[in-house]
Amino acid sequence: MATTTFLSNATVNLTQGMTTYDLSDQVQSVTLTVGNDALEATSMGDTGRKFVAGLQAVEVTMTLYLSYGSTEVEDALQASVGKSSTLIISPSGTTESATNPEYTITNAYLENFTPINSTFGELATVDVTFTGGTFARDIV
What fold does the segment set 11-40+50-138 form as a domain? Predict the structure, then answer.
């Protein structure tokens, strides 16, 4: 049985309008979930439910260290609230390959975020979720 070990070091770039933000140095965790909506295709003669693929379904959740200023986390998220954004995410580094696929998510929507999340003596973080849009996987 083949076994590999993978050390996470994801890269995350967010484009909003004409500005691209490299959030890689502020991301504590990122999860990308991709798939398709399940559309029921069961007919009267079937003995069990059947489904077919519908529209692409995408969700990106991130925990980021809050930082303020031009091109920092708060600036990037504030610019993205209520708008469509493009996210480019790779598991490790920016050179895509079969062992480091790059996912481009276009028209991802950020409904809201918490610009201030402070607890005395702790690093400030923010959890955000981008939903919707379409994804493309690139390995070259």
Answer: Pnp Oxidase; Chain A (2.30.110)
Please provide the average confidence, as pLDDT, over all residues in the chain: 92
The pLDDT score that the predictor gives to residue 2 is: 60
pTM surpassing 0.70? yes
- The DSSP H or E segment spanning 77 is helix 73-80
Read off the pLDDT of residues 67-113 as tens digits, 9 standing for 90 and up.
Answer: 999 989 999 999 999 999 999 999 987 788 888 899 999 999 999 99
Largest CA distance in the chain: 63
For the chain, the domains span 11-40+50-138
CA 21, 22, 23, 29 torsion-angle sign: positive
